[in-house]
Specification:
The protein contains 13 helices and 2 strands; from the N terminus they run ααααααααββααααα. It has 254 residues and is mainly α. It has one domain. Strands 1-2 form a two-stranded antiparallel ribbon. It is globular, with a radius of gyration of 18 Å. The chain starts with 9 loop residues before the first helix and ends in a 5-residue tail after the last helix.
Length: 254
């Protein structure tokens, strides 16, 4: 079966993405990666760098295995994560926002370190200041004080750093519990966990569970949209993920 392909111009992509992210942010669904990629992906497969969807798009040599893992992830989501996140969304919006902000801030050292690894010293300094401000004046990250001070949020990880260093994406893979990734992107998971402050908080298994529920809650609207419009949820998710990662690597994302 041939893959449905679309081409977005960069201005159009950026404009549509901003509308969706702003809309989700107003509804407490912060600008998480999955929201943007799922909402924008559709059946799109596009390399923004070259304009040719087939030039450098990661291959999917183990698609049957990936589809099986995807199905298991979806089953777990349908039976457990989905219902739990629906209940979680009944909490007051201020509580949800505070919890999300804490986890976002706790993971922010990953962005700080990778800014420096990519040679973006100025952004690294600013992101260090953002982390310090939100960790102190923001009471552990509960409140996003830094944005109001002009210290904008960025999103970097070791997968993006490897791309900047010239490492190719490798094959597409679907990871149990994590979802879509590539060989290159998956290499950054351990580093991200190591730099995440919440990893070292007492009662770690419970904080990890709460973090997963928070992320699933933030993605709920996008997942529902995908389920309503996608003919093939696996292909939709894969292509949307790859397009969004391509966008981030070129520093056109948050």
């Amino acid at each position: 079966m041939s893959r449905c392909k679309m081409r977005f111009s960069i201005p159009t992509f950026a404009a549509v993405r901003k509308i969706i992210v702003d809309w989700n942010h107003r509804r407490l669904r912060g600008p998480m990666v999955s929201i943007a990629i799922l909402a924008l992906g559709g059946c799109a497969s596009v390399s923004i760098e070259s304009g040719n969807p087939d030039d450098a798009w990661p291959s999917d040599p183990v698609e049957p295995v990936n589809r099986f893992v995807f199905s298991v992830n979806e089953l777990v989501d349908d039976l457990a994560l989905g219902p739990v996140s629906d209940a979680y969304r009944q909490l007051p919006e201020g509580v949800q926002r505070g919890i999300h902000n804490v986890f976002d801030n706790a993971a922010y050292p990953d962005t700080v370190v990778n800014q420096f690894l990519q040679g973006k010293v100025d952004l690294g300094v600013k992101d260090t200041a953002r982390f310090v401000v939100n960790s102190t004046a923001g009471i552990g990250g509960v409140f996003d004080v830094a944005t109001g001070m002009g210290l904008e949020r960025h999103q970097e990880d070791f997968g993006q750093t490897l791309a900047v260093w010239g490492v190719g994406p490798g094959s597409f893979i679907t990871l149990p519990g994590f979802g879509p990734s590539t060989v290159r992107d998956s290499s950054g998971l351990a580093m991200g966990a190591w730099l995440d402050v919440s990893t070292y908080v007492g009662g770690f298994p419970y904080t990890l569970l709460l973090k997963v529920i928070d992320q699933r809650s933030n993605n709920a609207d996008a997942i529902r949209l995908r389920d309503e419009i996608a003919l093939d949820r696996y292909s939709y998710t894969k292509d949307a993920y790859l397009q969004w990662r391509d966008y981030l690597i070129r520093d056109q994302g948050p």
